[in-house]
Design brief:
The chain is of the alpha/beta class. The chain contains 13 helices and 19 strands. Helix 3 packs across helix 5, helix 7 packs across helix 9 and helix 9 packs across helix 13.
């Protein structure tokens, strides 16, 4: 692996201690890392710890190493800047170009990619001001991971947890290795209406139980954020999500596949682009009990009969002539290979069968994709043997998909 120069910015949150594990991953991979903590971060993890783990001197003052013009050279010389944890305050400063310490000044001097990994309480993450700041950072070309969902400080639980060090490391390496497609060009979707489905549908068995899947909705939400950053008007058809929806999107909440179909067909009527990223259940129970199904010794175990749900993507492809002229349809396929064919063999057949223009393919199983903060996809185009690759965080993959959509629309309309 090629050795790179990395700046690791550490914000002043309780998750600062987790950045030590990320630092270890960087250094063990052979990279040279300079840690730049905020003043508040040093209240959680001391300077001595960062110096011992990185092998470099550590400061957060622009008045140290003045002879080297440290606040300028750090950003200019870094191949990558990673900020983990990125607190709400730090995101606000970065989004608005504040430069009142060494880290924020370094961010303004960045010549290479910048990756933010937010961590904060759920209410702070979902606040419209924070979401606006994230959208602004993405529009400026920065990469922002969605936080993980789980236990926070104290008894709180929800979205806002710092992703695992391994996930942040994987996203960082994808940026350094250049495996991520070009980012979003602000304004590339100005005036376009984009419909995106996200999350996993839930098919009720009774008032308590349902049939569902492992989709977190992270990829669909990242696509919505990317389309908003490109200037689109976005309608997000949201099934079950484990992450908050982006500020600026018109959100339509659904639960079942039938509800998602109805909402999608209605929203797609005048859309320029429809992106089907939701994990839609292929089957649903033939009947749903009006009361909770009881587990009783004197009654036989229930037998659940399943019926097929409609194929929404295929229906969109078959009826496109009745909607907006030149509409671009993008499907998602979670595939596994077997003795009958590879992942891409099945995906190409699905693309032609469904009538979509693009198909974003990811391999699932063995812990891949579902619920993770990183992704690796192949993008296929109907009627073509060409394929594009995108890897890294789900934000990065979303940026690659949206950039490809924008370029195809631009080419189609001259």
């Amino acid at each position: 692996m090629v050795s790179h120069t990395i700046v690791l910015g550490v914000g002043g949150g309780i998750a600062a201690y987790k950045a030590a594990s990320l630092l270890r991953l960087f250094t063990e991979a052979g990279h040279s890392v300079t840690v730049v903590p905020t003043e508040a971060a040093t209240r959680f993890v001391g300077v001595a710890t960062w110096e011992a783990l990185s092998g470099h001197s550590v400061t957060n003052s622009v008045f140290d190493m003045v002879e080297k013009v440290n606040h300028v050279q750090l950003g200019q010389q870094a191949d990558l800047i990673v900020v983990a944890p990125a607190t709400a305050d730090l995101l606000a400063k970065a989004a608005n170009g504040r430069a009142d310490d060494l880290l924020t000044t370094t961010l303004l001097m960045a010549r290479g990619p910048v990756l933010f990994s937010p961590a904060m309480h759920t209410e702070m993450w979902r606040h419209p001001a924070t979401q606006d700041n994230i959208a602004r950072l993405r529009a400026h070309g920065a990469h922002v991971l969605d936080p993980a969902v789980g236990r926070l400080t104290g008894k709180d639980s929800g979205p806002g947890r710092l992703p695992e060090a391994e996930d942040i490391f994987a996203a960082s390496m994808a940026l350094l290795d250049g495996t991520v497609a070009p980012g979003i060009e602000p304004g590339s979707l100005d005036g376009r209406q984009v419909v995106i489905t996200a999350g996993g549908t839930r098919e009720p068995l009774d008032p308590v139980r349902f049939l569902g899947n492992r989709s977190s909705g992270k990829q669909g939400v990242a696509l919505a954020a990317a389309a908003l950053a490109a200037g689109a008007r976005v309608t997000l058809i949201a099934a079950h999500l484990e992450v908050p929806t982006p500020a600026g999107a018109a959100v339509v909440g659904v639960e079942t596949a039938l509800e998602l179909r109805e909402a999608t067909l209605a929203a797609a009527a005048d859309a320029d682009v429809v992106i089907m990223a939701a994990a839609v259940a292929d089957f649903r129970p033939a009947t749903s009990a009006a009361t909770k199904i009881k587990k009783r010794d004197d009654v036989a175990d229930p037998v659940i009969t399943l019926v097929r749900n409609p194929d929404i993507l295929a229906e969109l492809g078959a009826t496109r002539a009745t909607r907006q002229a030149g509409q671009l349809i993008v499907g998602f396929a979670a595939e596994t290979g077997d003795d009958g064919g590879s992942v891409l063999d099945y995906a190409r057949a699905k693309l032609e069968r469904k009538g979509a223009d693009l198909l974003v393919v990811n391999e699932v199983g063995g812990g891949k994709v579902f619920g993770q903060d990183s992704n690796q996809v192949t993008i296929l185009a109907r009627g073509s043997t060409e394929q594009a690759q995108a890897a890294g965080s789900k934000d990065q993959v979303a940026a690659a998909v949206v950039a490809l959509v924008a370029s195809r629309l631009a080419a189609a309309h001259g």
